[in-house]
Amino acid sequence: MAPPGYEASAEDLAKKAAKRSAREAAGEKVGNAEGGPTGLGLVPEAEVLDALRDAVFAPLASETLYDPLTVADLAAPEDDYHRHTPSFSSEAARDVSADVWAEAKRVRQAAPAGATSEIRIHTVTCDEHGCDEEASRYGVLVKIEVAPGLTLHREYSVE
User: Which residue from 21, 69, 132, 146 has the fewest beta carbons nearer than 10 Å?
Assistant: First the structure.
């Protein structure tokens, strides 16, 4: 139990998450709030990782997170988008506009030290016969290894 007023650093959280992952990989049973003993005040792993991501990616807090495409992106609002059979894909973007490049560069410069990034293009297409609708959206995927075996990532919107 941490002393009152103690706030764990991103490094502390990363070490704890890495140790937990190593124990799980070794086959140890690791208790958590969903399945562990009651009354111990344990936090679910997803919540710990979310807090760690918030701390690590704090320099990018003002950036907009990437919003995944949906079938609704294929059609105008008045169109019946339920008639579409969507196919989704994501890959590294090869050619981007100067505006997308500039926004991606801004995200890269604000990223935490040691992070890597990649401009991605996400596409949704309609697989129905005779339908040629398609929508695309760009994002910058930022990754950083915070501990051996523990890499965190977040994707930010760029347009």
Answer: 132
Q: Which of 158, 71, 83 is nearest to 123 (CA)?
A: 71
Q: For the chain, which residues make up each domain, given as ranges?
A: 10-56, 63-158
Q: What are the pLDDT digits (tens) for 89-120? A: 999 999 999 999 999 999 999 999 999 999 99
pLDDT in tens, 5-60: 445 666 666 777 777 666 655 555 555 444 555 445 677 888 888 999 999 999 99
